[in-house]
Design brief:
Blueprint: H1 7-15, H2 27-37, E1 41-44, E2 52-57, E3 65-71, E4 91-93, E5 96-98, H3 102-123, E6 128-134, H4 145-154, E7 161-164, E8 176-178, E9 180-181, E10 183-192, E11 196-197, H5 208-220, E12 234-241, E13 249-250, E14 253-262, H6 268-286, E15 289-298, E16 301-302, H7 307-320, E17 325-327, H8 335-338, E18 344-346, E19 360-362, H9 363-380
Length: about 375
């Protein structure tokens, strides 16, 4: 094989794999062949119909093991007719590649795979490199990175530190890295009253006034004012549904959903307990029943600024002449699972077009990202 892996060609080959969650689409097969040929020991860790790939170069259990984590699954294309380019064509126009997953995050996977392969061939470092690549980040993420980490624990495979290659830069290459993420919690409420005629409201129990009251209580409550590394937590009412087409009928039920993005001043369970107390108060006041179903997608976490963030920050600065801001903004990522295994940070491309129609990436950024990842490996194994 070539001594230099072209990350742009690898990105294009990955984009041409239609790996919409949960379909593997050939992306992990391609990577497994490439990494195996390069001397990485590869293992498929498939679970629950999801494809995952573990690849290690170097000795198992080495005390100095650098890990990369990323995903090859992508979100659906959406309206194909709205695209001006083939969503899986990886077409390059004026220095920009178009296609689903170009930004989120097949370029990132291609960049760290290319950097790792070239690095071990050129340096043969005293240590190990692990690539943990999943096909289930964009969906429920139950059988993706979690499955890889479960398998690694069973097999005594251990990363000393890990870098997740998600897009992290808002505007310019190198302007931001993630050292943590907010937690995410969704709560679904069902208020049940008694259906009746709108002309005789006393004979019914209207679920809408208590629902409106509860949503107002939750939405106007100040959860906090922010912490050292996090902005203030937020609660958004994302839907209220009654489904009542009749104007002369008081409905029996109303449903609503809220989403909370919370910082390290809270745990998911603390917030659930608070909402349950408020729901019980409203239910008693209106003589209705309120059922609450919750799902914690991830707790907030922080990798305190230190050796790992400094290592990444210096590599980014040397390559881009920008000092990346240490941030905890944005949605969730698989770093929320990795943080229980080892220290983890995130750095990747500019993410302006991710999940959009005509998702795209500048070719120069792919090369630059590979160079940054190479610098990180060089400094880590120095």
């Amino acid at each position: 094989m070539s001594n230099t892996i072209d990350p742009v060609k690898l990105t294009a080959n990955l984009v041409k794999c239609p790996s919409v969650t949960p379909d593997e689409g050939g992306a992990l097969v391609l990577l497994e062949e490439l990494l195996s040929e390069a001397g990485f020991q590869c293992t498929r860790v498939d679970r629950g119909g999801i494809s995952n790939l573990f690849a290690r170069w170097g000795a198992k259990g080495h005390s100095k093991t650098f890990g990369f984590n990323g995903h090859t699954d992508v979100v659906p294309v959406g309206d194909v007719d709205a695209w001006t380019k083939d969503p899986f064509g990886a077409e390059i126009v004026d220095g920009t590649m178009y296609g689903r997953g170009t930004t989120d995050m097949k370029s990132g996977v291609a960049a760290f795979a290319a950097a790792a392969i070239d690095f071990v061939h050129e340096r043969s470092p005293d240590g190990s490199i692990i690539l943990a690549i999943t096909g289930d980040e964009e969906a429920d993420a139950i059988d993706g990175t979690v499955a890889l980490l479960d398998w690694m624990n069973q097999e005594n495979e251990q990363m000393s530190v890990c870098l997740v290659g998600e897009p992290t830069c808002p505007s310019e290459m190198g302007d931001m890295m993630k050292i943590g993420r907010r937690g995410s919690l969704t709560a679904r409420f069902t208020v049940t009253g008694v259906q009746g005629h709108a002309a005789y409201p006393r004979r019914a129990k209207n679920p809408l006034p208590p629902m409106v009251r509860l949503m107002d209580i939750l939405a106007t409550h100040e959860l906090d004012t922010g912490t050292e590394h996090f902005d203030a937590s937020t609660l958004a009412v994302v839907t209220v549904d009654t489904g009542n087409p009749a104007t002369n009928v008081i409905p029996a039920q109303s449903k609503a959903t809220v989403n909370i993005r919370f910082n390290d001043a809270h745990t998911g369970q603390d917030l659930i307990d608070w909402m349950q107390v408020e729901a019980d108060k409203v239910a008693d006041a209106f003589d209705v029943t309120i059922d609450m179903q919750t799902r914690i997608s991830g707790e907030s976490f922080i990798t305190p600024p230190g050796p790992l963030s400094e290592l990444v920050s210096k590599a980014v600065q040397r390559e881009t002449n920008r000092q990346p801001k240490l941030s905890t903004s944005g949605g969730t990522s698989d770093a929320r699972f990795v943080k229980d295994h080892c220290p983890v940070v995130e750095f990747g491309l500019v993410g302006k077009s991710m999940h959009q129609v005509d998702e795209n990436v500048e070719i120069a950024q792919i090369h630059q990202l590979k160079s940054i990842y190479t610098r990180i490996l060089e400094s880590y194994f120095e």
